[in-house]
Amino acid sequence: MTPLVLLLTALAGWALLPRRLDAGPIAGLSLGFLGATFFISVEMFVFDLFGIGWNRLALLLPWVGALGWALYSRRDTIAPPKLSWSNANLIALSAVAGILAIWLPYERTLPMTQHNWDAWAIWLFKAKAFYLDGEIGVYLSRVKEFIGQPGYPLLVPLYATFLYFWEGGVADHAAKLYSPVYWLALLGALHYLVSRIANATTACALTVSAALTPIVAVAAYHWAGYVETALTAYFVVAAGFLYLWFRDGDATDLAVASIAAAAAAWTKNEGQFFFAGFAALGLLKLLRERRPWPQWVLLLAPATTIIVGWSAVRAFHQIEAAGFSMGLSFEPSLFYIAAGTVVSKMFSPDLFNIAFYAWGLGLIAALRLRPNSAYWALAGLVAWQLGGSVLAYSTGRNEIQWWLGTSADRLISQVAPLASLSLAPLFARWCEIAPQNAPVEVVEPSPKKQGRSARKRRGR
């Protein structure tokens, strides 16, 4: 049942995407899945706040209404999707099918290890509790009885609860399927964004590079059940559409970027830190260009509403937002240890392939290529997120070596695909100024030379 629900989630999200995105099947299913899982979790959160029971009919009704409205409003423009069965698409489809066919039986027999303990104890445990209680409040009122980071946001636990409802019971192995699906959605969204920023060739190259980044794939498959892959996908979508809004000024791109940033903030505490950097960049543009107030609301309202709403619920239950506090008990000695470890891991090919080498070289290349200023927003968000992680480690909340050893790989993996995305504007700029694209001056030979050339040819 779960694979069908995952597919229907993606299809519903695709149907509700703005037509201006012109998203084909791969991009539509990818962006649709990311959007739909976010809105389903928000729907369940709102239903719980207002005392509306969770059941299949209640959860489906808003989606039926939204899809009906979408079909009615677009009745004159709806056409069957044109599927291209090119060699590239067939190879991609075969690769996806092969990966899942290999992973599924392996995952079913995989013993629980220390590495995936957090996935079960934090994220999926909450989903079990929410499903069995039929609400959020019972778990939050008993958090002292569990070790489960109750202050973490709830996007993934609530969507896993949604899957349990359709399975008719707690089915962790089924719920863990969301993790590789988020990975596939990440790659589809990355390909779409790079295609818009640069070109199809660059999109294929950077998507393959992201897919082959070791820890990103490990987080999606071996550590299935964590939220890192979902968070990574939302980072890429938020940053990519922010870049497009900077470049083109289209309010649709701003809306998608803002919703993705809100989804990141609703996925994990690191997403709230990401939103702070995202919002600062957006506000600078709004201030500089004196944009109208609706764009200010569009930038800030989605994530702010989520953060304030979840903070109010936490405050009611007296739960701290543990996990990503900064500026608290800062210790310089821990900062140097954390910075050294993070940098060494970033540039380890066994962990991150060439993602951060390429990102660093891109910063240098940008000084010569001189891409538009929006490039620095993309590259800067990578540095912002890595810097925030180092500062968090410097608070001394946990023993530093244990903390780094158990979480640094995952934290860095959150921004590795974003580092790949930041290269797209550089490739676009390079293609723009490359010598082969320069106009060729054609010099017409003089009549005298043409006659001489003709006599020479006849002489031969």
Describe this structure in words.
The protein has helices spanning 2-15, 25-49, 56-73, 87-109, 117-133, 137-141, 155-167, 172-175, 178-197, 200-211, 214-221, 228-248, 251-265, 269-289, 293-316, 332-346, 349-352, 355-369, 374-393, 400-413, 416-421, 424-433, 447-459. The protein is mainly alpha-helical and 460 residues long. It has one domain (2-72, 88-433). Helix 12 (228-248) runs antiparallel to helix 19 (374-393). It is globular. Mean pLDDT is 86; it is low at 454-460.
Q: What's the SSE blueprint?
A:
Layout: H1 2-15, H2 25-49, H3 56-73, H4 87-109, H5 117-133, H6 137-141, H7 155-167, H8 172-175, H9 178-197, H10 200-211, H11 214-221, H12 228-248, H13 251-265, H14 269-289, H15 293-316, H16 332-346, H17 349-352, H18 355-369, H19 374-393, H20 400-413, H21 416-421, H22 424-433, H23 447-459
Helix pairs in contact: 1-2, 2-7, 2-9, 5-7, 9-10, 9-11, 9-12, 12-13, 12-14, 12-19, 13-14, 13-15, 14-15, 14-19, 16-19, 16-20, 18-22
